[in-house]
Write a structure and sequence with these properties.
DNA-binding, zinc, metal-binding, THAP_Znf, DNA binding, about 60 residues
Length: about 60
């Protein structure tokens, strides 16, 4: 995954490390998980907003504002 990100973010001014972070603006909205769903005993689903959004597996930055 790191190699894929590095290839998309290649820029001589930016040094990418494994501990680097990236803003969610670089990802498509459908690549970001902003809420979790919980199935209740009665069959209803409760959606809870995440404090920290999470990237879906395999998400790669593709938007460069």
């Amino acid at each position: 995954m790191f190699i894929s990100w590095s290839n998309f973010m290649c820029n001589e001014d930016i040094k990418i490390k494994k501990t680097s972070r990236i803003c969610e603006l670089y990802f498509k909205p459908e690549d970001i998980i902003k809420e979790d769903a919980f199935l209740q005993e009665d069959g209803s689903i409760i959606y809870v907003q995440r404090k920290n959004p999470k990237l879906k597996e395999g998400a790669i930055p593709t938007i460069f504002p």
